[in-house]
């Protein structure tokens, strides 16, 4: 993997740490920001950048996702990403809410690090496609960009929980982790 990818990833992480430390909309409670010294991450690992094959759902099924505050929020299951990780095949559903940008996909997931090395309720990825995805398209899922939702840092946020269909029976040691 190129040094440019690694450099971009590290720059992205530094910018996020700065946002969390200083921005008024940071999920870190204001009285804890002075002690905040950055998020914890797994080391960048190109093995967690995987090529996925797209299956598009022209009539997306609505999915009611539970949230951390006990409500539900409706998403549409618009695509499925099929990929291999450590020689095993997996699928992850990509979601969107009605009216959202059609080129952006929300991919919440849990894996065997959840509750051990990562936020116990799961992590998120977002995929932004350059053009409309069609069946058979190949896209890159980069688990190095996986992040904990804001509710991992403050109870004032309500976050959708990954549905069981997006619970991976493998370990994904990439992206944000707990201390």
Could you characterize what this model shows?
- Residues 13-41 are annotated as: Disordered.
- This protein is mainly β.
- It has one domain (42-177).
- The chain has one helix at residues 3-22; strands at residues 40-41, 49-66, 72-85, 88-96, 104-109, 123-128, 138-142, 176-177.
- Strands 4-3-2-7 form a 4-stranded antiparallel β-sheet, with no helix packed on it.
- The radius of gyration is 16 Å and the shape is globular.
- The mean pLDDT is 94.
Order of helices and strands: HEEEEEEEE
Order of strands side by side in the largest beta sheet?
4-3-2-7
Count of DSSP helices? 1
**Number of distinct beta strands:** 8
Oligomer: single chain
List the keywords.
179 residues, 4-stranded antiparallel sheet
In short:
It comes from Haloarcula pellucida. This protein is mainly beta and 179 residues long.
Walk me through the topology.
Elements lengths: L2 H20 L17 E2 L7 E18 L5 E14 L2 E9 L7 E6 L13 E6 L9 E5 L33 E2 L2
Antiparallel strand pairs: 1-8, 2-3, 2-7, 3-4, 5-6
